Please model this.
Amino acid sequence: MSVTFHSNLLAKITRQVSQETLLLFRLWFIFRNSPPLWAILLGISGMALSESALGAITPAPEGHDRAFFPPNLTIAQLPGHLEGEAGGNLSQITPLSELSDVQPTDWAFSALQSLVERYACISGYPDRTFRGNRALTRYEFAAGLNACLEQIVAAIGAEETLPPEELEAIARLQEQFAAELSALQSRTDALEVRTAQLEATQFSTTTMFRGEVAIALESAFGDRKADSDRPLDENLTLSQRTRLSFDTSFTGSDRLNVRFEAANMASLAAATGTRFANRNYDGNSDNAVLLNQLLYNFPIGDRVMAQIGTTGDFVEIFDFASTQPYAADALSLINTYNPLIYRVYATNGGPRLGAKIRISDAIGLDTGYFTPGTAATPLPNLGLFNGAYAAAAQLNVEVNNAVNLSLSYLHSYQGGNDGYDLSGFTGSNSAADPFFNRANSTNNFGIQGNWRINSRLNVGGFVGYSHAYTQAGESANADIWSWSINLAAPDLGKEGSVFLAAFGMPPKLTGTSGSNVKEPDPDTGYVLDLEYRYPLSNNINLAFGSYAAFNPNHNDENDPIYVVRFRPVFRF
Model:
C-alpha cells in the first residue's frame, strides 16, 4: 500500500530533528551548573530516547522511522498532530500549584519548582496535568525543550541574565561542534530537496491509493456436470480481478472509499452445474472498469462510526474478519463466511445505511439497512424503501484474547421476478429459489466463532439458518441451513503463511410447507477445501490448493466435482 503524506510533513520532521539536536548541545552547557535543571533534562531525554518510550510508540508505516509517530496516531491525523501537539496542545503554565498531579512530596518537585522560578518554562496539558510518570513522545520532548529555549534566547537577547562565562561556553560549543553541525545541515538540505521532489510528484494530500490484483490459474474437473448427463469441460483457464481503491479523509477520522473493479472470471457454477463450485475472489465485468464500491464512513461521537453508500459489499460494515481470520481468504466461497448472513441477495451491490457501535472494548454492535441495485430506480415497488431490502444487526463479542463470537440477525424482502438467490450464491437450486421466484421474506440467524488455541493452531466456523415465507399468492414456508468449520495452522513454513483445511455444507433446503413450493433437497452435499497460502513478500501472496464438492446440489446421484486453483494476489 502506498501512502501519500502531508505536503510539509517531511520538512517538519527534518527541522524538528535538527532543532532537538541543537537544543541538547546548548542546554548541556547552559544548565551544567544547575543540578535541578540538569536532573530534569536527563530525565526528559532518558524517557524520550529509552526503549520503554519507544515501545509505547505505535509502529510507523513500512519504511519510516517509528520514533516519529506518537501512540495511537493514524496517518490521517499526523499533519494535524504536527501542527497541534508540538505547538498548540501544550499550554504554558507557570504556577506549579496549577498542575493537579504534581505534589510537594514528589521526588522531582524541587527540580520542577526551579524550572518555574528561574525560567518559567514548565509546559502542562490543557487539563492542568503534567503526567510525569508516563513515557514521553519526541514531540512532547521537543515542545518542552523549545519552551525553555525561548526563555534562554530571550535572556541572551537581554544580555543581562546570563553571565559572560555561559555566553563564552556557548561560543566554544559552536566552534567545537562546527563540523558536526555542518554535516547535519548538509543532511537537512538533502532532505529538504527530497521533500520538494515529493511535493512536486505526490498523488494527493488527503487521499490514499491502494490496489489489488488477483490472478487465477484454475481448472474444474469431474465425470459430468451436476444434474446433467453432459461431461464436464475440463478446461484450464487464466483470469483476473483488479481493484483500485481511493480512500479520502476530510477530517482525519472519516473515510470516503471509491473503488473501481475490472474482472473476467467466468462463473464456475455455469461451467459445473452447481453453486457449490463458486470461488472466493470472484467477479466478471468482461474486463470493463466499473465503480463497484462508493462508501462514506464518518464518526458520530466517540463510539459510533456511521456509513452511507450507493454501492458496495455487505462485509464493509459487518465484521466477519474477527471470527474468520484465516477462512476469509479461502479459495472456495462457501468456506469463506456465512452465506445466509453476509451474501443475502438484498445486501449486495446497492445503497446502504449502517453504523458500527462500540459498546465496550470487548463488545461491538453492527447495524445496517441494505438494498440491491434496484434502489436507484424511481419506479413503483422499487427505490430505497419500496423494493427489495435487508435489515440486519450483529453483536460482536471478544470473550478473551483467544475467542471471538458474533451473533447475527437479518430480515430481508425479495420481490417477485427479482432473480434473487436465497442461498447466498453457494447453495442448491432449491435453496436459492424455493418459491419459483415469488415475492418472499426471510428471517436469518447466524452464529460465527473463532478460537485461537495457540500461536500455531486456530479453529473457526459458522452456522446459518433461514426461515423464508411467501408474501403474495398462496402461502408457503421454507427452512434453509448451512454450516462450515475450518482448521488453520498459521506461520507454517514462514511468518504470514497459513495452511487451511475447511469443510462445510452449502445452504440446503431442509423443509417446506404450503403450496407451490419446491421439495426439500433429497441428500446432503459438502465442500472440502485444502489450501496453502504463502507470502512471497509484503505485497505478494500466493495461494494454491483444491476444493471438492461432494453430492453437488445435495444430490448423491451427482458425481464429485473438483477445482484446482493457483491464485497469486498482488497488493500495492
About this structure: Confidence is low (pLDDT under 50) at residues 1-94. The radius of gyration is 31 Å. The CA atoms of residues 34 and 391 lie 69 Å apart. The longest strand covers residues 498-514.
